[in-house]
Amino acid sequence: MSNFTKEKIDKYAKDLLIGLTDKERDMIQEEFDVIEKNINLINEIPNIKDVEPLSYPFEMYVDDLRSDDEVGEQIDIEELLSNCDVVEGREVEVPKVVG
Predict the structure, then answer these.
(1) Could you report how far apart the first and last alpha carbons of the chain are, in Å?
(2) How far apart are CA 57 and CA 59, in angstroms?
(3) pLDDT digits over 37-80, tens only?
(4) Residue closest to 9 by CA, chosen among 84, 21, 63
(5) Cα–Cα distance between 90 and 93 in angstroms, integer?
(6) What pairs with residue 88 in β-bridges?
(7) Is residue 95 a part of any domain in this protein?
(8) Which residue range is the domain that position 21 belongs to?
């Protein structure tokens, strides 16, 4: 027997302020029956509880990042700010690009 009865579906629809027709409620009931059937198939897999769940489907690797000590030529901040039209302290004003 399904955990999602028509009464539960009607209650959830009412709580969510969704008006369902009988046809829509039956369609949702059928979808939940399929979902529940598939979940039961998964639960019948032997030793499924011993399997570690994946949090990300791909293997992650991290390349070594360069050290910050390997910085080349540095430009003085005053020289950089001299190219800006509007400067306040170390902040610059940029043109608005989105309406």
Answers:
(1) 56
(2) 7
(3) 999 999 899 998 888 888 888 887 777 776 767 667 788 888 88
(4) 21
(5) 10
(6) 91
(7) no
(8) 6-50
In a domain, 76, yes or no: no
Classify residue 34: in a domain, yes or no. Answer: yes
Distance between CA atoms of 83 and 34, rounded to whole angstroms? 64
> What's the pLDDT tens digit per position in 7-41?
899 999 999 999 889 999 999 999 999 999 999 99
H-type alpha helices, 4-93 = 6-15, 22-43, 77-81
Domain-located, residue 71:
no
Q: Please tell me the predicted confidence (pLDDT) of residue 15.
A: 92
pLDDT of residue 49: 86
Q: Are 53 and 41 in contact (CB under 8 A)?
A: no
Is beta strand 87-88 parallel, antiparallel or unpaired with respect to 91-92? Answer: antiparallel
| 3 state DSSP class of 24 | helix
Domain count, the chain: 1
